[in-house]
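[job 4417] fold queue: 2 targets
>>> target A
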Amino acid sequence: MTLTLFLAWVAIGMALAFAALVAKIVVGRLLADRRRAREHAQRPAIEMVLDTFLAAEEPERPLLPAGREARGLVRAVALEELTELSGRERSRLVWLLECSGIVAETAVGLGSRRRRVRRAAAEALRQIGSEESVRSLSVGLEDPDLDTALTCAAALAELSGVTSMPRVMVVAEGAALARPGAVAAILVTLGRQHPAELGEALRPGARIELRRLGAAVAGELRLSQHVPALRAALLAEDDELAARAARGLGMIGDDDAFDALVDLVEDRDRAWFLRLAATEALGEIGDARAAPPLERELSTDAWVLQAKAAGALRLLGAAGEAALRRALASPVEQVREHARVALER
């Protein structure tokens, strides 16, 4: 075969492949357009059936359309309505989805080979939030797709009892580095629903990324039962963990952390942001004994530490105000300016 003939066959092959791709796209769009047209035609009737069922005083179970596509549309409409419903109406719609088999059909999606289908099923079950959904979501914790497993974990943190929390925490710990935002959301839910369970994220043997998130959440939610773990985290070699623990103790207002926080403020070998967090925490705790170390911090060379020290001194009452007034006589203009701004607040 000559080179010219070979290139001709290559060109023909590429042309056929391109034509097949175009045909696939065109056919896919036609099918999608037809599906949307059918949904558009069926949606008003489905909405009417569901709204009538929800509004009735003594409703009878309505006859829902058959067929995979139609039942998928019923689920989509129901999920939209669930976002706006509460109380009796929400419970009624969830009951309908369960007894009509739509929850069970949704749960089957967790076993799909396609990751997108599994994720959608997990999110739908989370929105439904029924007992049957919870049982199915427990299986999804083992999903190899991290986002699917996290969706199931987030749902269980919100919907389930404490018996599910150890498995939820396993997923959260495994994803703390790759998906910190999603894990933080799970920990916030845990802190609100099952605050004692957040302690698992603060234990010394937990992954450092999880401990950092746990410390931040415990502080933001003012969970005083986790103060001992936050105090222990102040002594960690990891500056970020110690900084988050310091902020948390400051927000909680833990007087017993005073000495450890002062040590951090005065430790010039620690990261600046850790000293910054400890400085802020001392101001929030409001112990007048913090005035001398904060006054020394006001005279450091770092602008951000000076500003934070001045703000913290302002929160200490008379002792802090006296330190700020002394700073007005500092030979350093920047120190004088920070003191002036703090006193004018």
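>>> target B
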Amino acid sequence: MNSVFKGYLQLCRPPNLPTAAADILAGITITGFFSDSCKIVDVLSLVFASIFLYAGGVVLNDVFDYELDKKERPERPIPSGLIKLKNASLFGFTLLGIGIIFTVFVNILSILLALLLALAIIIYDAASKRNTFFGPLNMGICRGLNLLLGISITGVLEQWYYGLIPVVFIFAVTLISRGEVHGNNKQNLIFSAFLYVMVILGVILLNQNHKNLDNSYFVFLLLFALMVFVPLMGAYQNNRPDTIKKAVKAGVLSLVVLDASIATAFAGWSIGLMILILLPLSILLSKTFAVT
């Protein structure tokens, strides 16, 4: 593989992209769209919109982190000189633009949410991530908007409250990531564990209100709990950058399982398994490309 081409792929964080698609599929399932008049063009448009928006966001994250990465992560594509800062910036904004364009094929609400998501991404990358509270909150809002983008397929947001689940969860994961470089973040780990519990209870509470509930979602939720808590405990016991990175990686990838648990409650285990298939893809890609 050409080194420059691989560098651009590295900027996009390929292992994370299936998790963005999982958010969309979960959001669509919540609306009952799959059981009604499913339009595959709308589904694919939102999936690709989410993937491109996410990719653009992580590329611009590295663009705005250029000076910091020269000191802490000099091996990354931009600080290493493999990709010029100007080219990476153009690449990131182009990806965001393509993501927004894909929503034009769906409806006005989807377009507005894509624009709002792109704005939230830029605010995070350019400014808020440097704040210990607003950074994680902003990142969580991006994920919440991504789930709402899936829900927007019907043109309304009746189940908007499900968007709060990824907000809280990604807030927790982002808090953990604050120790990736230097370690020593046990307080963040404790608070994140509390937030993980809140996420699990929140999913149960919201799902139980669904009149045609499929209780097999508990299996997916249990898998999710194991995925996030086992590495989190490891990071707490050995509070080093390498164990913290594992906890962050598990948090990001486990989003697929969290989405599967929500979708299963609405549409049964077959839909849950369909979304869960994205997890092995993310894990496979994570063996070649970095998650964080």
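[job 4417] complete. Note on B: Residues 40-64 form the longest helix (25 residues).
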